[in-house]
């Protein structure tokens, strides 16, 4: 974690609610299984803002679906949008934490995540300024509107014929730097484009046939 983010470990008896003034709580699994990195991508920031969620209110089970959706769509050459995300997922809440469940009659983009046990005990704090999104705490007592946007089908979205599952796996830091889908709001000069392999060398590939290329 770069020093500018001011990451600090909690004290022995601290809880996730004990972030110091000017800091926010981050779940460690965000940066493990979920493949999240800072700065946040524009898409992740827009998801948090649309649902009026503070990042600490979103469980890793919710974050992994956000990140999987973004990476899958980018790998398929489709621009990810909150509107299309809503076609697949419904916001849900349990035990005070938010996640996203698969909507009925929608194609599955990923298998249910495993291995994220005891995630509530694994957290740290970073400076709030590191989160480039307009965060607000959602009241768990507020009702959640049931999504009524049409589910993805060939007659509702033009990209449906190209949709396919891309296996999700944890990337190491080198792969994440190469893949670098971090479309941070602090800099929009580099926009990732996914192109089909044409024989050239590339240090990392998705599904063996899709390669990330970053254009300025």
TrEMBL record:
InterPro entries: Transposase_28
Ranges where the Transposase (putative) gypsy type domain occurs: 33-91
One Pfam family linked to the record: Transposase_28
Organism superkingdom: Eukaryota
Protein name: Transposase (putative) gypsy type domain-containing protein
Native source organism of the sequence: Helianthus annuus
Species classification: Eukaryota, Viridiplantae, Streptophyta, Embryophyta, Tracheophyta
């Amino acid at each position: 974690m770069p020093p500018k983010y001011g990451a600090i470990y909690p004290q022995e008896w601290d809880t996730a609610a004990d972030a110091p003034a000017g800091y926010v709580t981050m779940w460690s699994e965000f940066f493990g299984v979920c493949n999240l990195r800072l700065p946040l991508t524009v898409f992740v920031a827009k998801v948090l803002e649309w649902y009026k969620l503070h990042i600490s209110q979103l469980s890793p089970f919710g974050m992994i679906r956000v990140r999987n959706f973004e990476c899958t769509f980018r790998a398929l050459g489709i621009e990810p949008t909150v509107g299309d995300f809503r076609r697949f997922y419904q916001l849900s809440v349990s035990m005070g934490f938010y996640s996203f469940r698969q909507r009925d009659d929608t194609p599955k983009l990923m298998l249910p995540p495993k291995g994220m046990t005891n995630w509530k005990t694994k957290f740290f704090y970073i400076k709030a300024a590191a989160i480039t999104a307009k965060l607000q705490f959602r009241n768990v007592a507020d009702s959640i509107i049931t999504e009524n946007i049409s589910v993805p089908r060939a007659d509702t979205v033009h990209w449906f014929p190209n949709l396919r599952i891309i296996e999700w796996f944890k990337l190491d830091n080198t792969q994440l730097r190469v893949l670098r889908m971090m479309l941070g709001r602090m800099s929009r000069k580099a926009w990732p484009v996914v192109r089909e392999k044409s024989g050239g060398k590339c240090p990392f590939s998705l599904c063996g046939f899709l390669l990330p290329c970053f254009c300025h």
